[in-house]
Amino acid sequence: MTKVLVAEDNAVNRELLRELLENRGYAVVEACDGQEALRMVDETQPDILLLDIGMPVLDGYAVARKIRENPGLTPLPILAITAYAMQGDREKILNSGFDGYLSKPVNASALTDELERLLRKREDRNTPPNQSPEASGKTRAAATDK
Fold it and tell me: pTM of the predicted model, to two decimals?
């Protein structure tokens, strides 16, 4: 089962994301600030991290930077889930170590599409050059490129 770490300081938003993810078959672990997110990445080894930008202790930018500085964690996909939706925010976020971006309120369909895209991208990086992801049985049957 794919494990998703949700790092979000707002309890209502965490609950909503947990319900959306669990209803789609994902296992969910949670963190309520950036420092806890880093600890949970170490302890739970998630398949993907959903990371809010504006969190206490360490913001999402600092968390992403620390993850990207650790060679053992660089393959971890990081999806920004944020209220930052002004012009230029998406580009700034994607240029700061994040692999994807969704603005709040989160659209369930967009969340599913982005999770599948990022998880496929991670699987592709982990597949030996002479073996396609399909041949190794790693892709989801229902997944399609968007």
Answer: 0.83
